[in-house]
């Protein structure tokens, strides 16, 4: 150093200090050269650096830049931990103006801070520091010193810069974490100005060629067309670069190619020599170059296609720069941030607006919007713009100029992604112009392929964001290669990955497994493509052959295809080299559109459906035809409840739900949950493809599933006080409203994205047993639970003392314990951990588990509610609980690992005598309620214990002759697990005598069965639902009804009309008390239900009905597939003769169609009644005086009773208000006039007396005379088609009719007849229409 400083004795102390730093920096930067030449001394480098600084600043001024410091690469990497920039020739004012302009262009970003540093280093393309001719060349440029190196990139790189010691006056430095492949590479260097060479290496200068040795591209074409040529010939070619392909790494071998063009002639040049891979950064489209020492080669994979190959003696020299051109030959112009001229699709002109891209058709002059599913002509264009936003750096998605999308996924542009941050100016050539290729991207999308070239025209002056950069191991890019996805598929995959990460990480899915889940979701959602060799991607044809062919130009509208790919994770394109199987060239078209599916979150689904619930509400549509004639007390109960169902497949953009199935013990149903929320589910499973039953497989809990075919049900609860139907438009009469949203689906429609541990074990066990496929798509059918015989199970309402609710969910997987098998138990607990799946496994501790075998009989309803909050004590002393009577088999068995759904062993059913046991489920244990059904076999597992006594049920001692009639009980602990055992995993169980047998009857058997007991179980179809008046207020559970308006669900008394599934017309009324229990979703008209242990009652009129008791259980087995929109469902009605109907009564049917003749009107009554109290309403006021009624609203009502005869018998028909006008044959105007006349009188009644109609009022009243004459005229006495319902639905026999018959006298001419006549059939008219022949 002293000898170096002696040369600058005339400098001041500050400059000498700076020169000393320069010498130390040069000493650290003096590394061996790549050509095995000796490294220069530190003094030589330092002197060269001083000369270079003087040339840059001012050759006449010997002053050194005292405000700067010299650094080596090692010092820069170790000391500079934040992004920075350095500009030697800039003043402070220039830097501030540059930073202000950069921040104004993109306001949400900050400019790079300035660091006054001068960097000295060795510019090379070698990865290692050992001097060797070609060792470690990978095409990446680096700045190196003795110990470290950083990657770099220049805007206008020259090949003669390499292997030189350089002074870098202007650069940007972006620190990065070291990669796994190269721990020495830290950070990224952007050379914003050409570096200054310090010591020229003569060996790196390319020899000049004479003009006679250089040939044009057209001459090269002639040489390539020769059949015979001399070996060893080397060509020196000059041309303009028209195509520049990216650098590829295939099977550990790197190469790239480019095309030289001269007029209409074009030739491809293949660069395989590792020493010339650095040319890829030096070549630019539109620039004239001269390449020497090229040899002619043939590509066997392209049927002998001839190309030029670079040799180790080849050199590259740049000529004068030509303007950049597009494929059509137009010159590409435009300032920074402006788009180059682009030719768009067939007859369309692309215009750039300030805010939007618009595609117009010049012929029509109107905006043209392409269809979402079609093929369109593609153009390859050039574009220059500014990157304004990083959409998804890991997936290679960016935004240019605020409105144009850019996709880099189809090209390995990984060497420059560190420079792709907001503010960078890029120039793209031969890029695909796609318009509205998908709804998940901007209207204009530029996609690069292996033929495209992407170059940084100006580095960004802004700091990078926190987004990660894409790498060769990016999951989305790996899936793109494995499945060879189209652009729409890839964009949808990226959208799925982003969405799944937001909704399930880290609670359910590990971040590293999101791509696997998204790939499975893509396979389930998108239809299959044809597979075969024609869909393999041929990289050579894509880069070199005309016409151009790549995955972005496929015409097929299908979604999935495969190709042969054996790739290491590192390389971007690791295709099979079996490219001889190639499809014919495809036309330049691309497929437009994306999956017409919407990946909704649970929260978005709930919000959307709640809005749809109230938008679809029409109060008038909820009323029956008699709505205008109802009083306040009759009207408002009909409006208090309604529902609206919406099948997912009926919407314009069907939603796809992804979530985890769970049961948290707060209700009677499962839930589909993500991190945004949870929605209740009514799940059923198919038994034989046609019949359904409630889902019973506990292995579904914890599974991450997707579902497309489901129905969203929205139940509305209203508190209203409408005086009459005329006030339905006044919302002030609605005092409270609430909406409950849940979904209904069949488990066979679920697609497993990540199975729970139980489901994975079940699929594996079924596959070994030969009853299940290896694919997870069959999990729904494979997981179906078989049926065994049952005895009886009861879920009784229980009350407990104050208890504490623990919000944590303990997961027990891979543990030891005890197990016992039970027949048909009830409930499901916390979700399984997913060893081997994508779901997080949770806590895993080593204690033991014990299973035991038992078999359940039957299940009953949840009972009890708690007013305490979750995690705290229950203040009201009420808690959820139920109990189940099961048949227990064998003794508890010790297992070293959790048996889950391990096939049933003989030792589990041997030992103790089979006996009935009551399983008690309390508080958190009630989470098993939704999936525990009758006729199923389960394994009960007790973890963390080796004591068999925990699963042993003590027998109660008997005293003397006293016998214990109740079964012994076992309290199920919250940490115990229940696993469903399907028939394929167990041998046939022995028949065991039962004390009680569950018999499921039909509605007809309940109505007319002579052996029907007090408690009955039956199944049927809900035809109508009516909310009755509330009797008392019962405290509800805050966690279930915590939202505003949810308390309208409490204290509900519901009347269900249930119809027979086999015999139309047979119905029974069921009175269900929902107060004090969790709300049961799915009780809507059209749903099929299983009602267990309901009390059968007989009314005073001998009508049979059922009502719920504390042990009653309601199970929904199927929901309607269509939306009826009302609280009633119309069932098919059969035709019936009155004579047969009178003999058989309700046994025949409760509702029937009759074609009969009206013989006479027995009476007709019309009146106006007060809407509030029901008294006569006369002359706009109520006549009630004690107490006085101040109501001013009246309701018109009419009723008629007629006698009809169809030739086989007669009947008396009651006709209500809305059908009286049809009976009388009056038009709308006439009917309104009669109502006005009756309103003056208040009440009018005429009745039959002999052959005449008389009235108790004024017989001379014109209205009475008119109605009397009308009732006996042929206008009324005419044939009609009637739909009638029996007023008395008690069973009727011939003997009973003879007993109730009365003597009647008939006169025929001179003779009198006396005979016994049964009472005529009494029916109510439901529908009246003019007579017409039946089909």
UniProtKB/TrEMBL annotation:
**BP terms from Gene Ontology:** positive regulation of DNA replication; telomere maintenance via telomere lengthening
Which intervals carry biased composition (Basic and acidic residues)?
Answer: 803-814, 853-864
- The main location class comes to nucleus
The segments labelled Disordered in the record are: 768-787, 792-873
Pfam families in alphabetical order = CTC1
Q: Which InterPro entries match?
A: CTC1, CTC1-like
Determine if DNA-binding is one of this entry's keywords.
yes
Location comes to:
Chromosome, Telomere; Nucleus
Q: Which cellular component appears as one GO term in the record? A: CST complex
What name does UniProt use for this protein?
CST complex subunit CTC1
């Amino acid at each position: 150093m002293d000898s170096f400083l002696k040369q600058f004795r005339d400098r001041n102390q500050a400059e000498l200090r700076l020169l000393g730093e320069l010498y130390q920096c040069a000493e650290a930067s003096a590394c061996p050269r790549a050509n095995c030449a000796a490294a220069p001394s530190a003094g030589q480098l330092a002197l060269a650096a001083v000369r270079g600084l003087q040339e840059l600043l001012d050759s006449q001024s010997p002053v050194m830049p005292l405000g700067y410091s010299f650094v080596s690469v090692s010092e820069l990497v170790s000391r500079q931990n934040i992004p920075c920039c350095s500009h030697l020739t800039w003043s402070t004012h220039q830097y501030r103006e540059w930073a202000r302009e950069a921040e104004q262009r993109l306001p949400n970003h900050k400019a790079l801070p300035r660091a006054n540093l001068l960097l000295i280093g060795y510019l090379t393309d070698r990865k290692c520091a050992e001097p060797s001719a070609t060792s470690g060349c990978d095409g990446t440029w680096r700045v190196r010193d003795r110990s470290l190196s950083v990657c770099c990139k220049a805007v206008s790189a020259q090949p003669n810069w390499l292997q030189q010691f350089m002074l870098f006056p202007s650069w940007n430095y972006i620190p990065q974490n070291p990669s796994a492949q190269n721990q020495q590479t830290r950070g990224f260097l952007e050379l914003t100005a050409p570096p200054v060479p310090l010591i020229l290496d003569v060996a790196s200068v390319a020899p000049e060629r004479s003009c006679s040795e250089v040939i044009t591209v057209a001459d090269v074409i002639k040489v390539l067309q020769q059949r015979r040529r001399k070996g060893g010939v080397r060509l020196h070619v000059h041309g303009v670069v028209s195509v520049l392909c990216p650098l590829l790494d295939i099977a550990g071998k790197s190469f790239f190619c480019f095309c030289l063009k001269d007029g209409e002639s074009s030739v491809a040049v293949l660069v395989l020599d590792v020493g010339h891979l650095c040319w890829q950064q030096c070549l630019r489209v539109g620039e004239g170059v001269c390449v020497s020492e090229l040899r002619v080669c043939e590509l066997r994979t392209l049927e002998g296609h001839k190309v030029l190959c670079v040799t180790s003696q080849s050199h590259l020299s740049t000529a004068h720069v030509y303007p950049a051109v597009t494929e059509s030959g137009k010159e590409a112009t435009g300032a920074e941030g402006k788009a180059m001229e682009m030719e768009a699709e067939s007859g369309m002109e692309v215009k750039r607006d300030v805010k939007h891209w618009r595609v117009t058709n010049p012929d029509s002059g109107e905006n043209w919007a392409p269809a979402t599913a079609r093929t369109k002509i593609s153009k390859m264009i050039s574009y220059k713009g500014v990157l304004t936003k990083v959409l998804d750096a890991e997936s290679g998605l960016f935004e240019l100029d605020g409105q144009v999308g850019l996709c880099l996924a189809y090209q390995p542009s990984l060497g420059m992604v560190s420079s792709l941050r907001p503010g960078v100016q890029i120039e793209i050539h031969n890029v695909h112009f796609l318009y509205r290729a998908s709804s998940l991207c901007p209207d204009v999308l530029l996609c690069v392929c292996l033929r495209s070239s992407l170059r940084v025209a100006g580095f960004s002056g802004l700091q990078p964001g926190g987004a990660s950069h894409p790498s060769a191991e990016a999951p989305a890019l790996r899936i793109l290669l494995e499945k060879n996805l189209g652009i729409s598929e890839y964009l949808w995959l990226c959208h799925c990955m982003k969405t799944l990460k937001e909704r399930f990480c880290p609670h359910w899915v590990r971040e590293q497994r999101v791509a696997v889940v998204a790939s499975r979701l893509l396979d389930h959602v998108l239809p299959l493509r044809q597979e075969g060799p024609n869909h393999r991607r041929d990289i050579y044809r894509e880069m070199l052959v005309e016409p151009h062919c790549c995955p972005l130009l496929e015409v097929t509208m299908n979604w999935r295809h495969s190709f042969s790919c054996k790739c290491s994770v590192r390389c971007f394109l690791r295709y099979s080299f079996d490219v001889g199987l190639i499809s014919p060239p495809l036309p330049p078209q691309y497929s437009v559109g994306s999956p017409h599916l919407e990946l909704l979150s649970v929260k978005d689904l709930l919000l959307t459906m709640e809005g749809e619930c109230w938008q679809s509400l029409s109060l008038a549509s909820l009323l029956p035809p008699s709505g205008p004639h109802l009083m306040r007390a009759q009207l408002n109960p009909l409006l208090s409840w309604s529902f609206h169902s919406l099948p997912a497949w009926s919407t314009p953009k069907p939603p796809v739900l992804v979530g985890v199935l769970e049961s948290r013990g707060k209700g009677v149903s499962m839930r589909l949950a993500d991190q945004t929320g949870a929605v209740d589910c009514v799940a059923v499973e198919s038994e034989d493809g046609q019949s359904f039953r409630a889902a019973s497989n506990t292995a579904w809990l914890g599974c991450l599933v997707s579902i497309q075919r489901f129905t969203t049900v929205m139940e509305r609860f209203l508190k209203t006080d409408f005086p009459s139907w005329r006030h339905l438009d006044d919302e002030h009469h609605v005092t409270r409203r609430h909406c409950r949203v849940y979904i209904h689906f069949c488990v066979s429609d679920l697609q497993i994205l990540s199975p729970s541990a139980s489901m994975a074990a079940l699929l594996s066990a079924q596959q070994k047993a030969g009853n299940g496929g290896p694919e997870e798509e069959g999990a729904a059918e494979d997981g179906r639970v078989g049926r065994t015989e049952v005895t009886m199970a009861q879920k009784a309402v229980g009350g407990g003392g104050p208890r504490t609710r623990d919000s944590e969910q303990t997961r027990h997987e891979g543990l030891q314990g005890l197990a016992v098998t039970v027949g048909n138990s009830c409930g499901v607990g916390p979700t399984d951990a997913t060893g081997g799946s994508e779901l997080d496994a949770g806590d895993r501790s080593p204690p033991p588990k014990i299973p035991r075998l038992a078999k359940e009989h039957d299940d009953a309803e949840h009972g009890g509610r708690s007013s305490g909050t979750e995690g705290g004590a229950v203040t009201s002393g009420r808690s959820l609980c139920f109990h189940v009577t099961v048949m227990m088999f064998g003794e508890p068995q010790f297992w070293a690992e959790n048996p889950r759904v391990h096939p049933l062993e003989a030792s589990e059913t041997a030992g103790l005598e089979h006996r009935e046991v009551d399983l008690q489920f309390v508080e958190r244990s009630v989470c098993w309620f939704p999936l525990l059904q009758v006729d199923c076999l389960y394994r009960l597992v007790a973890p963390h214990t080796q004591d068999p006594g925990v699963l042993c049920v003590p027998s109660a001692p008997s005293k003397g002759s006293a016998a214990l009639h109740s079964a012994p009980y076992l309290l199920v602990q919250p940490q115990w697990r229940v696993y469903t055992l399907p028939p394929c995993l167990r041998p046939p169980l022995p028949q065991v005598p039962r004390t009680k047998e569950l018999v499921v009857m039909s509605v007809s058997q309940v109505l007319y069965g002579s052996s029907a007991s007090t408690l009955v179980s039956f199944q049927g179809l809900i035809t109508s639902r009516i909310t009755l008046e509330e009797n008392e207020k019962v405290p509800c559970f805050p966690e279930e009804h915590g939202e505003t308006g949810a308390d309208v669900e409490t204290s509900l008394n519901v009347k269900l009309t249930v119809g027979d599934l086999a015999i139309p017309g047979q119905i029974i009324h069921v009175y269900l008390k929902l107060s004090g229990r969790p709300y049961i979703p799915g009780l809507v008209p059209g749903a099929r239900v299983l009602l267990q242990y309901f009390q059968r009652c007989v009314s005073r009129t001998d009508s049979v009905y059922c009502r719920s008791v504390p042990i009653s259980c309601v199970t929904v087995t199927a929901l309607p597939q269509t939306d009826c929109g009302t609280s009633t469902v119309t069932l098919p009605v059969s035709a019936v003769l009155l004579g047969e109907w009178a003999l058989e009564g309700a046994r025949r049917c409760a509702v029937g169609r009759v074609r009969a003749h009206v013989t006479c009107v027995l009476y007709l009554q019309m009146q106006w009644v007060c809407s509030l109290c029901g008294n006569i309403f006369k002359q706009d006021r109520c006549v009630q005086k004690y107490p006085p009624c101040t109501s001013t609203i009246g309701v018109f009502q009419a009723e008629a009773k007629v006698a009809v005869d169809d030739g086989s018998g007669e009947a008396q028909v009651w006709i209500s208000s809305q059908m009286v006008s049809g009976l009388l044959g009056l038009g709308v105007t006439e009917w309104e006039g009669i109502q006005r006349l009756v309103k003056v009188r208040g009440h009018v009644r005429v009745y039959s007396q002999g052959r005449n109609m008389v009235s108790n009022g004024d017989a001379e009243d014109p209205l009475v005379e008119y109605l009397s004459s009308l009732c006996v005229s042929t206008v009324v006495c005419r044939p009609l088609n009637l739909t009638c319902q029996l007023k008395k639905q008690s069973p009727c026999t011939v003997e009973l009719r003879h007993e109730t018959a009365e003597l009647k006298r008939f006169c025929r001419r001179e003779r009198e007849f006396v005979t016994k006549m049964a009472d005529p059939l009494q029916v109510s008219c439901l529908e009246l229409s003019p007579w017409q022949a039946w089909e």
